[in-house]
């Protein structure tokens, strides 16, 4: 026995198959397959954390803010201003590959001299529109912040105020909404002006230079509000800021074609505010008790799949919550039945 020469282990696989196996292993090593946990696993993971007290970690927050500062400089760049976008400057649309535009006299005159916000903002609420807000009783808590940001011109009528509040200082509006809901403001503009009255004195933050087709409608929003003497003012999102924020999250592993408005807004808030609490950021079909919920707090219209990467985005935000960088509110704030009627 001892005299047997050492031999390569025998295999029944033909040489070609072994080579293929080695090739696949090498391929996987170079391009690992990231398996995103599925909805059930994510919800389980979140449940395990519930009940643990959340504490802000000022070290982690300062570190994260420094990263944001270095990549994207939110304080200076999040909106177009005369300072950061001089006349004649050429900028690329951040949502297009091939198109750029030059800031002309007329457009330039619509920009404020510098960021009009009093920075740093203190406590901010960022409100996503997730169905988890329904019957959350979070309205009062949301409104207790100094600065409230909302996404995509959400409804704030009385039936929702207990859950989402009414205060708004900044609300985003995609040009596609202006097109769908208000016929690009080419016909009656009064319906639009009336519909934004609920946002009181807020800024309407529009990605006017992300897609070529979005510029016209965004400028019309600006002129419409001006013509009607409305209280709201348009702030134009800076395409360089949006692109940099997109790259930042891509480097952290988000593989979407485009970030959702919500993640842009949370990123901006982390750069602009001292304390950030986010509400309604929950892209799943069940709540923490396993009950089915609608997609938004006001409807159940599902987004186009494949465009945004909502579970990936959620996991990043959840990581920030666990690190003490921001607070994510997922449970009820108050029992809505216990609140006095408003
Ligand atoms: C706070 O964050 C820092 C940096 O991420 C970390 O080193 C530290 O352990 C955290 N502190 C607590 C109490 O979690
Ligand atoms: C830009 O517009 C202002 C007034 O709106 C005008 O006085 C100025 O001459 C214009 N400049 C150019 C370069 O067109
Ligand atoms: C509208 O804004 C003004 C000034 O910022 C504030 O005093 C008022 O309470 C706000 N109204 C509502 C309904 O939020």
TrEMBL record:
<dbReference type="InterPro" id="IPR050943">
    <property type="entry name" value="Glycosyltr_29_Sialyltrsf"/>
</dbReference>
<dbReference type="GO" id="GO:0006491">
    <property type="term" value="P:N-glycan processing"/>
</dbReference>
<dbReference type="InterPro" id="IPR038578">
    <property type="entry name" value="GT29-like_sf"/>
</dbReference>
<dbReference type="InterPro" id="IPR001675">
    <property type="entry name" value="Glyco_trans_29"/>
</dbReference>
<keyword id="KW-1015">Disulfide bond</keyword>
<keyword id="KW-0746">Sphingolipid metabolism</keyword>
<comment type="similarity">
    <text>Belongs to the glycosyltransferase 29 family.</text>
</comment>
<dbReference type="Pfam" id="PF00777">
    <property type="entry name" value="Glyco_transf_29"/>
</dbReference>
<dbReference type="GO" id="GO:0006665">
    <property type="term" value="P:sphingolipid metabolic process"/>
</dbReference>
<dbReference type="InterPro" id="IPR012163">
    <property type="entry name" value="Sialyl_trans"/>
</dbReference>
<keyword id="KW-0735">Signal-anchor</keyword>
<keyword id="KW-0328">Glycosyltransferase</keyword>
<keyword id="KW-0812">Transmembrane</keyword>
<feature type="transmembrane region" description="Helical">
    <location>
        <begin position="12"/>
        <end position="34"/>
    </location>
</feature>
<keyword id="KW-0808">Transferase</keyword>
<dbReference type="GO" id="GO:0003828">
    <property type="term" value="F:alpha-N-acetylneuraminate alpha-2,8-sialyltransferase activity"/>
</dbReference>
<comment type="pathway">
    <text>Lipid metabolism; sphingolipid metabolism.</text>
</comment>
<keyword id="KW-0443">Lipid metabolism</keyword>
<keyword id="KW-0333">Golgi apparatus</keyword>
<keyword id="KW-0325">Glycoprotein</keyword>
<dbReference type="GO" id="GO:0009311">
    <property type="term" value="P:oligosaccharide metabolic process"/>
</dbReference>
<protein>
    <recommendedName>
        <fullName>Alpha-N-acetylneuraminide alpha-2,8-sialyltransferase</fullName>
        <ecNumber>2.4.3.8</ecNumber>
    </recommendedName>
</protein>
<feature type="disulfide bond">
    <location>
        <begin position="124"/>
        <end position="273"/>
    </location>
</feature>
<keyword id="KW-0472">Membrane</keyword>
<comment type="pathway">
    <text>Sphingolipid metabolism.</text>
</comment>
<keyword id="KW-1133">Transmembrane helix</keyword>
<dbReference type="GO" id="GO:0000139">
    <property type="term" value="C:Golgi membrane"/>
</dbReference>
């Amino acid at each position: 026995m001892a005299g047997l020469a050492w031999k390569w282990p025998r295999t029944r696989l033909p040489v070609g198959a072994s080579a293929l196996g080695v090739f696949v292993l090498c391929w996987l090593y170079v391009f690992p397959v990231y398996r995103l946990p599925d909805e059930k696993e994510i919800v389980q993971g979140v449940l395990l954390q519930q009940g643990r007290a959340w504490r802000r970690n000022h070290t982690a927050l300062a570190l994260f803010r420094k990263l944001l500062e270095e990549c994207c400089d939110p304080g200076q760049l999040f909106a177009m201003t005369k300072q950061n976008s001089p006349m004649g400057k050429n900028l690329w649309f951040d949502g297009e590959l091939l198109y750029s535009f030059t800031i002309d006299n007329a457009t330039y005159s619509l920009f404020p001299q510098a960021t009009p916000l009093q920075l740093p903002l203190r406590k901010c609420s960022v409100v996503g529109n997730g169905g988890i807000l329904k019957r959350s009783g979070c309205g009062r808590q949301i409104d207790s912040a100094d600065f409230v940001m909302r996404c995509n011109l959400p409804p704030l009528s009385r039936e929702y105020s207990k859950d989402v509040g009414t205060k708004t200082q900044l609300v985003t509006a995609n040009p596609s909404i202006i097109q769908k809901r208000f016929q690009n403001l080419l016909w009656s503009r009064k319906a639009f002006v009336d519909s934004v009255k609920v946002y009181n004195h807020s800024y309407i933050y529009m990605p006017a230079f992300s897609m070529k087709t979005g510029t016209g409608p965004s400028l019309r929003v600006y002129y419409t509000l001006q013509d009607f003497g409305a209280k709201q003012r348009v702030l134009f999102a800076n395409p360089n800021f949006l692109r940099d924020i997109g790259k930042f999250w891509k480097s952290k592993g988000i593989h979407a074609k485009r970030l959702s408005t919500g993640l842009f807004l949370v990123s901006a808030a982390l750069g602009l505010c001292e304390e950030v609490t986010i509400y309604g950021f929950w892209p799943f079909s069940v709540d923490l008790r396993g009950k089915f919920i609608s997609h938004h707090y006001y409807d159940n219209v599902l987004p186009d799949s494949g465009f945004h990467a909502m579970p990936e985005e959620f996991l990043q935000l959840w990581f920030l919550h666990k690190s003490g960088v921001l607070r994510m509110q997922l449970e009820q704030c108050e029992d809505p039945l216990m609140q006095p009627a408003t």
